[in-house]
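Reproducibility note. Readers wishing to regenerate the assembly model reported in the main text can use the exact inputs given here. Chain order matters: entities are listed in the order in which they were concatenated for prediction.
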Amino acid sequence: MSDETYPHPDVVLQPHGPALVRGATSVQAEDGTVHAVERPVVALCRCEKSSRLPWCDGTHKVVPRR
Amino acid sequence: MRIPKPRGRASEWLLAQLTSAGRAGPAPAPESWDDEAVSLWTLHELSYRGFEDADPAAEWDAELLVVRQRLEAALEDRLRGRWPGADPGPADVPAALEDLVATHEGPSLADHVRRHATRDQVLEMVRQRSVYQLKEADPTTWVVPRLPARAKAALMELQFDEYGDGDPNRLHSELFARGMEAVGLRPEYGAYVDDALPETLELNNALSMFGLHRRLRGAAMGHLAAFEMTSSIPARKISQGLARLELNGPMAAYYDEHVEADAVHEVLAAHAICGTLAEDEPDQAAEILFGAWTCLDLEARVASALFSSWGIQR
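Running the prediction on these inputs yields the following structure tokens for the assembly.
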């Protein structure tokens, strides 16, 4: 079986949701702070409304869709 | 953990059967919902960590399996009778899950904790939740070998995080135990089962039953998705409520961890697990929705029972 049987990208942009990122070890937030990554997959906020930037906290679900 | 206190003749029979090797005569029917719920909870627990005062061989005892099957059939009938959905399931399972979660109405413990709950009410909620949270993710792990490749890999990605990404200190059940200790509760596995409401036991029994039966794998995954999809925002509210009551520290850290973790998990559960499972096994689509709806319904029943025990109309 080739590696390509199933698509398994490292970065997945979720419609109306966060960006899932696999295998990152650190993430620099907009304010320049570098955050260590401790889990194999992280969800990065794309709506900019999260209370825990740069991570997604689910807030996009209560933000009106553009 | 020791065998829970009996709540009627069926659980009394079970206690006798588990401690005196089959000398208790034929199994009586449960005399109440409480009796039924604690009996099934006890039988399921034999497959998790078991009891120090029960024979380890009881897990696969034929007579006890007959009783377990009878209790599970009654539970499944009740759950399916409550569910308003039907076969065939939706074509777009992730979208249907999002719609279900967005439109389901139930009393919110998280809103109450954030703004109004007393310290005693929060501690009671933690005791009730501890029946599951001290074995968080375990019932779901039973489903792994029963899934097709994509759903299986995605479930493992999610479960690995539940189990602390390999670090026992970050195991979610350990974080919860540390939180309990920090707010003055007993952190031992099963410490508050005797205080569990029948609604709490029913919720736990449904989760165990979904996990233990291959036939119910779709319901187990739907339950997981609904649980994760309704976790991030409520976890933040509970964390804020804990801070309001000056219960911040390890208990709040547990909920803070769930804000971030479950924002990841809900995407994995809805799309990479339930979505691909329904694509690979289309007959599971309705089962996924059944499990998801049941999760929200049972959580709402626990919340209603707690509100009513506190004399609050919701």
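We highlight two features of this model. Chain A has a mean pLDDT of 91. The interface with chain B takes residues 6, 8, 12, 14, 17-18, 20, 38-43, 51-52, 55-59, 61-62 of chain A (CB under 8 Å).
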